[in-house]
Design goal:
2 domains; alpha+beta; single chain; ArgJ_beta_C; L-amino peptidase D-ALA esterase/amidase; six-stranded mixed β-sheet; globular; 27% strand; disordered N terminus; 413 residues
Length: 413
Amino acid sequence: MVQDNTTALFTVVSDGSITTPQGFSAGGLHCGLKKTTRHDLGAIVCEVPATAAGVYTTNAFQAAPLQVTRESIAAGGVLRAVLVNSGNANACTGKQGEADAYEMSARFAESIGVSKDQVAVASTGVIGELLKMDNVRNGIDGLPARLNGSRTGADDFCQAILTTDLVQKMVCVELELDGKRVSVAGAAKGSGMIHPNMATMLGFVTTDAAIGSEALQLLLRQATDLTFNMITVDGDTSTNDMLVAMASGLAGNNELTEAHEGWAAFAAAIRYVCEVLAKAIARDGEGATKLVEVQVNGAVSDDSAQAIAKTVIGSSLVKSAVFGADANWGRIIAAVGRAGQPVNPETVDIRLGDIWTLEQSRPVAFDEEIALEYLKGDTVVIRVDLHNGEGKATAWGCDLTYDYVRINAAYRT
């Protein structure tokens, strides 16, 4: 069991997937958008109209699929499916790119027998290249036969959405609402072009809870602000970032609203799913060797703590020091000081894990060898206490390595 600080309880389903919630199937296949034979086209389908919500990149240049998805969700607040391709972002591709995204939605809708405004589209990959639509059309036509409600279908979908990712990212939890078992699951991709504000990442949440679109949108936005918007790999926000949630309502619970006694429990489950996926993206950062977590306490507000945590986790100097296992706390305090937030220069504490390096803004003698061994681990926690208020926040990222440069120097080739 997992207990959130709201006292909400839910259980992690170790063998669960995005197809665990009632009503959902998924699948994937290789249609030829990638040079490898790894799947590059996938879909999640719901057997009934599912309440839908979405959060999108803040980048001014937004890829064509985002327009299709926004319109589909706005049309009625429901979706029957989301179609995803990797290997090509269909971004900065002009009117032809828009036409291709709409065709993808319409063709897949026809293939599964639903309205075209009930199919969302997402794409990820190289920017500025037109899709190989003959490949996409053939893939769409073959995709319905690959859809199923098993873990196999979920795994095929997760493979289909990857780009430079090294691992698939999926999580599932369940809880009880109104005497009914409710499942919440998620899958995501992301490894590079990751930065707070819908970090390139794609995320998908499925649930069989009964909930309205406005309520689901509220919970998705709140969870995003505390999870996906608190990760960074390289400081780049993509043109294609998207998080879509679908709720089938087949669990049979009473419709969730803020007045429902299970609201806090469901909100905790949504947040947990998003946090697990967000941390998995940070850990899988391009070339990364370790996950870095920055905990900020004692800020003047939570918003201020978030800004400071984001600045520290996004610092190239901090990330490089972690990669080199160098306990250079000066880089951390410098990042805190340039975050543009109120701080008292006389009251800051910094710890690396449980190793004190700074107390009340004064250096603390520590064993460099012990610090070296700690920083060599696969998870590094940086704790900053400002002693300036009650605000707190946590951000996640990764170290900056030689491999990051190698991977991105040859991304298109």
